Amino acid sequence: MDLRLTDEQHARREAARRFAADVIEPWAERIDREDTTPPSLQAALRASGYLGAALPTEWGGGGIDPVSHGLMTEEIGRVSSSVRSLLTVHDMGAQAITRFGTAEQKARWLPPLCAGEKIIAFALSEPDVGSAAQTIQTRAVERGNTLLLTGVKRWITYGLVADLFLVFAQCDGMPVALVVERETAGLHIKPVTNVFGMRGAMLAELRFDGVAVSRDCQIGPTGAGITFVASAALDHGRFSVAWGSTGIIQACLHACLGYVQQRRQGASRLKDYQLIRRQLADMLVAHTAARALCYRSACLRAQGDPRAVMETSLAKYHASAAAMRVATDAVHMHGANGCSEDYPVSRYLRDATVMGIVEGTHEMHQLALASYAFQRPYLLD
Ligand SMILES: Cc1cc2nc3c(=O)[nH]c(=O)nc-3n(C[C@H](O)[C@H](O)[C@H](O)COP(=O)(O)OP(=O)(O)OC[C@H]3O[C@@H](n4cnc5c(N)ncnc54)[C@H](O)[C@@H]3O)c2cc1C
Known about the structure:
Blueprint: H1 7-34, H2 39-48, H3 66-79, H4 81-100, H5 103-115, E1 120-123, E2 139-143, E3 146-156, E4 164-171, E5 174-181, E6 187-191, E7 204-214, E8 218-219, H6 225-262, E9 264-265, E10 268-269, H7 274-302, H8 308-333, H9 335-338, H10 345-355, H11 362-374
Parallel strand pairs: 1-4
Antiparallel strand pairs: 2-3, 3-7, 4-5, 5-8, 6-7, 9-10
Helix pairs in contact: 1-3, 3-4, 3-6, 4-5, 4-6, 6-7, 6-8, 6-10, 7-8, 8-10, 8-11
The structure holds flavin-adenine dinucleotide.
């Protein structure tokens, strides 16, 4: 694994860092406080090219390599997990169409998705079903060449503004994946408010009341909805959440380094206390380790290595757990100020907590990684 960035990767990271600092960061606190991403920022993101950055050039995407994609995600996730989550779900939906869509479906949906003219959200979770995705209760009943969708999806990131939804349902007991357009009759969308973290991610609950969806909108074969389509999309989501978590760790470290240099208690500045320095060292190690695992996952993805899926799970589990620990320490290091909205660290902690739940909870990754451990992949390296 070559840990040096190419000139192109370096330039892409610098560009993402500037975009994050100039365009997103000025809004980051407000996004969190007001539970929304302002339309002007949504427009800037749509125009930025970042929504389609990792999608195929054939359809107008940027076609960037996984390392560049990860670095870009880390930079954006460093300033706003809410905004980063828009890139995540959009990529999940569009990548699923890229991989499993027919030629007609790709020609219909990928150009506007690659251009950021349309946004796609990922609708798997339901009020009563999360981790056990195979047991979703939304039903798709066949009526000729149409499927009638009935059920409720909840916690759908950027569902309040998405133009398309990748929806999962059971059709005669077999999972199917369908693209549903926002304006379809019988689809009711309402906000999910007062969430703990990623508060600007414009979460929605979707209610399908016998929504008629043409068979032309089914992605992949009947029966492959969860095992193939959702799993592949979630793999992209985990990659993004892993890098986004390294961004949170980076943000925590940055905030703490600044704070301990100016905050004085007793005769010394906080930076001179050894226990504080130990925590800073642990944060630095956490960031370096999380980024290294993310980088490994990106390199394996670039090589098309079959281990990439589990190495992405490993990176996601480690980085999101590390982000929670580091963010907790960051709040403590800020004392009472850490509990106030005048400092960003409480937001980082709330967002880091969400990172350990989305795209598979810590426990689900632990279960999968334990099975992976039995395969002893490291002995083969
Ligand atoms: C901010 C936010 C954004 C989200 N965005 C989306 C989105 O865009 N699209 C979407 O489809 N979903 C989304 N979700 C939902 C998310 O994917 C689910 O919350 C997640 O999959 C966990 O499911 P659950 O909440 O139902 O928890 P549950 O599955 O009920 O789990 C509860 C607890 O039990 C544990 N548990 C469950 N099963 C097992 C087991 N077999 N062994 C051991 N422990 C177990 C879990 O690890 C967890 O600790 C979002 C959630 C949040 C908070």
